Amino acid sequence: MSKLVKRWIPGLLFATLPGLVVLFGYLFPSPLLVYWRDALVEWAVIVAAFAFLLGLFNILRVHGERIGHRRKGWLYSLVLLLAMILAWIPPILPANVPGQDMLDRAVFDYVISPVGAALAALVVFTLALAAFRLLRVRRSAGAMFFLLIVVVALLGSTPLTGLERLADIRDWIVSVPGMAGMRGLLLGVALGTVVTALRVLVLSDRPHSES
Amino acid sequence: MNAGAVLLLILSGLVLMALLILRGRKGTRPFVRLLPAFQELLEETGYAAESGGAVHIALGSGGLNGEDAITSLAGLQVVEALADTAVSYNAAPVITVGDPTLLPLAQDVLRRAYERKGIAELYDPGSVRFVAPSPVAYAAGAANVVATENVTASMMGGAFGAEVSLIADAGAHRGLPQLAAAADPRALGALYPTTDRLAMGEELYAAGAQMTGERRYLVGLVAQDVLRVVLVLAILGAVVLAFLGGG
What we know:
The structure holds two protein chains of two kinds.
Chain A: H1 2-27, H2 31-68, H3 74-92, H4 100-137, H5 141-157, H6 164-201
Helix pairs in contact in A: 1-2, 2-3, 5-6
Chain B: H1 3-24, H2 36-51, E1 54-60, H3 69-88, E2 94-97, H4 102-116, E3 128-130, H5 135-148, E4 151-159, H6 164-174, E5 178-182, H7 185-191, E6 197-200, H8 207-212, H9 215-246
Parallel strand pairs in B: 1-2, 1-4, 2-3, 4-5, 5-6
Helix pairs in contact in B: 1-9, 2-3, 3-4, 5-6
């Protein structure tokens, strides 16, 4: 009896039932199902917003401990916490404070966006470095083939004259073997997703409690 | 109801049937091929315990309230499967998440492993860390964990894009053993050059079956394989029919 109350009833109430209502709300959009589907999705958004508060406390705890114990990189943690506190100020200022809106936008326009763009640009360099590293440490036929395709695809994408033939080869690689591989991969991912989702729905998998 | 919904319903019904049939069969243990990406993770945890370090597990920037929810849950299976072993060795992994909805779930998985061993007081919630909500910022933060902390191996499993190369690069720079499992083709392209063991596409969803060998996971994996064969045969059949019809 206690097993039923502790394991099955909460699982059925908070996982299976809402999951089925949302799923069927999309598959059979009757007014009643759509109403409950939208309500449940809205509740999920509210719960997710509270999860951000948990995330915030987690950041405070992890970086606060690092600063407290003077662990490696504690100065960066201090900058992070200070930046976090400063970023809170513009949104909580009353709307009638002069420049409140401007200050809020400036944080995004002059700090968050440029730093994000710089990090995204760094990805290109890490990818190039990874390809170079591959050439050094893994000289297998597969690795060489991978690099050859990368070089052909990159050169084929450049607007340089004289490389039109490479552009044709690149297009063929992308649209024939590339697309076939991608579809096979996505088919497998879709199946994996359906199986994992159904396991959660039928309570075979309970990430939220003891199995 | 459109054709996609009908297909999803039929597919879900088939999966459900396969799950129930396979689950009901006692005695026979389903065979699944072994994936080195998951097999070696347990060994790396043992090595981390011996060397006084920790395994870093990056769960990606997906959360529970978006399109990456199931991929994130699949990544969480890695933590579930590893938690007991890690706690036995007293070498808790460092887990980084990029969406706060995944934070309490990952913390809970780890906490329950400590409780099962009767050492709940040793559980440190700081082992699971929320880094940043944007994918690139998350990758940069997780890369910093790999680069600066006492990490002996790095596992990346969950929802990633090409930005995962930042984490992989930090691990490669330190010469760490790197294992990865991802579903997004952009992440796979970025991970292939730097990781030693890579689980691709649907292999990500096999983490639980691979690492625990539990029947509930194995059954799901076999159902997935059976359905893939059915789908491939259906596609081939459709191609033949279209060819004959068109001819």
